Amino acid sequence: MVLEIMDSVSKFLPSIKSPAKPLSLREKMMWTVSILAVYFLLYNTYAIGVSPAQISQPLEQLISIIFAARIGSLITVGISPIVLSSIVLQLLSGSDIIKIDMTDAAQKARFQTLQKLAAVVIAIIEATIYVTTQYVSVTAPSYEIVVILQLIIGALIIISLDEMMTKYGITSGINLFIASGVSYAIVAGTAGIILPEAAYAIQAGTTASFSNALLAFGPLFFAIVVFLVSIYAYETKVELPLAFEQLRGIGGRLPIPFLYVSVLPVILASSLELSLTVWFRFLNGIGGSLGNIAKFIALYSPVSSSTGGTSLQLTGGLAYLISPSFPLPYSSQYGGVGGYAAYFNYLITTDTAKLVLPWGGFVFVPEWVHVIVYVLVLVVLCVVFGKFWIEMTGQSPKNMAQQLAEMGWQIPGFRRDPRIVESVLNKYIPTITVLGSVFVGLLAALATLTGAVGSGMGILLTVGIIYMVYQQLEQERIYDAYPILNKIAK
Fold it and tell me: Domain segments of the chain: what residues?
């Protein structure tokens, strides 16, 4: 009954029509560049009634990078509604609360429509939360409704651009916007923070000037390390021999990459963690008997900025323990704690985070406990989303065995039976999925903790996105060279 009601409502949603004929690689590139230009136009346009001088805390910077957003701009909400709607619907589908057969084209289209409807609802809720909780600085209370409407319109445009990219571009809008935002953050961080920090250290004229200047490049160094390790992980794979049953002597290999589900687990896990830090802001200010429970979940405190303004910042509660809310290892003039020595000393010795107890009182939580909880929760979420994703996207051993059988492939030395192939794949895919999910979770956490420029998690996502786009471009080039393959793939 609920699905039927949602179906009737979703008919009023705007939709992007699919191209009448397959697009060439050149046409897809043109569409991609055009959509990216619109995205950056929205990225650099502040909403009317918003103060451009936003307070930039490390957690807010990370939220902006992961959600491909810019606080105060028309795309303040970013891709968060798209990602969260996907998580919610996948959880509902996986728990059989809603039953949708993803192998059926009509049912899959229904899932995508429901996902768009959920994204619109989440966009409206998040735009309201951003403004009413003062996450976005509004110049006057009378502008709140106007700003909320602008953020909703911006979110709807991003949803439409994502759908347009999926149908006309070379990758999804989510991938394109994240990679663009991270690339912009790396360039801006290097030019606006690292180079001035190094120049400031040299100008100091002390005996430690040269070493301090080198340490200033630490965030860029860790970014490069994450980049190289990610590339190596993407190139690591297990290959199973295949034989074509209808033609003897023709064979191939089935590659099972170490990162079988790419960076999707860490995208979903980090998006969920960061979304909670935004959504729980509405708990701030709750008093009475529920006040302690609200603060136990998430404690927000006003934080002053160098410009004299204040902003609510997550400083305690369970939401804080699972969030990547860590200071940056830059000097204090850039919102950091004064270098890596001071940064690691902060993580080891500081215990200012509060955990308010539901029955009253509070305890201080050391930052090293925050580090451990954050890493463990992120890794567990990556594993959960990784295993769930292969089931939802048809990459499970059962689905892969069925696809190989339909294409006429078999594993040499085994009977031509999908169940036999499935048993062989079961020895590899589940284990590789778990190991790959743990790896991306640990790498993302390590990179975040070392303060890599552009955020370590953002770099990890960007490398994965670039690798996926490269593979897709290779496929598109083959399709352009051999048009008959495009018909077979259809």
Answer: 25-274+369-489
What type of residue is 167?
K
Q: What residues are paired with 239 via a beta bridge?
A: 255
pLDDT tens readout for residues 379-395: 999 998 888 878 766 67
Contacts of 384 (CB under 8 A, 6+ apart): none
For residue 156, is it left (φ>0), alpha (ψ between -120 and 50) or beta?
alpha
Euclidean distance between CA atoms 442 and 372, whole angstroms: 11
**In three state form, how does the secondary structure of the chain look?**
CHHHHHHHHHCCCCCCCCCCCCCCHHHHHHHHHHHHHHHHHHHCCECCCECCCCCCCHHHHHHHHHCCCCCCECCCCCCHHHHHHHHHHHHHHHCCCCCCCCCCHHHHHHHHHHHHHHHHHHHHHHHHHHHHCCCCCECCHHHHHHHHHHHHHHHHHHHHHHHHHHHHCCCCHHHHHHHHHHHHHHHHHHHHHHHHHHHHHHHCCCCCHHHHHHHHCHHHHHHHHHHHHHHHHHHCEEEEEEEECCCCCCEEEEEEECCCCCCHHHHHHHHHHHHHHHHHHHHCCCCHHHHHHHHHHCEEEEEECCCCCEEEEEEECHHHHCCCCCCECCCHHHCECCCHHHHHHHHHHCCCEEEECCCCCEEEECHHHHHHHHHHHHHHHHHHHHHHHHHHCCCCHHHHHHHHHHHCEECCCCCCCHHHHHHHHCCCHHHHHHHHHHHHHHHHHHHHHCCCCCCHHHHHHHHHHHHHHHHHHHHHHHHHHCHHHHHHHC
Structure confidence by residue, pLDDT tens digits, 331-350: 665 556 667 778 888 888 88
Q: Which of 320, 346, 239 has the alpha carbon at shortest distance from 59?
A: 320
Q: Give percent of the chain above pLDDT 70.
A: 77
What length is written for the chain?
490
227: left (phi over 0), alpha (psi -120 to 50) or beta: alpha
pLDDT in tens, 367-377: 899 999 999 99
Residue 135: Cβ-neighbour burial (10 angstroms; 0-12, 13-18, 19+): buried
CB 447 within 8 A of CB 459: yes
Architecture of domain 25-274+369-489: Orthogonal Bundle (1.10)
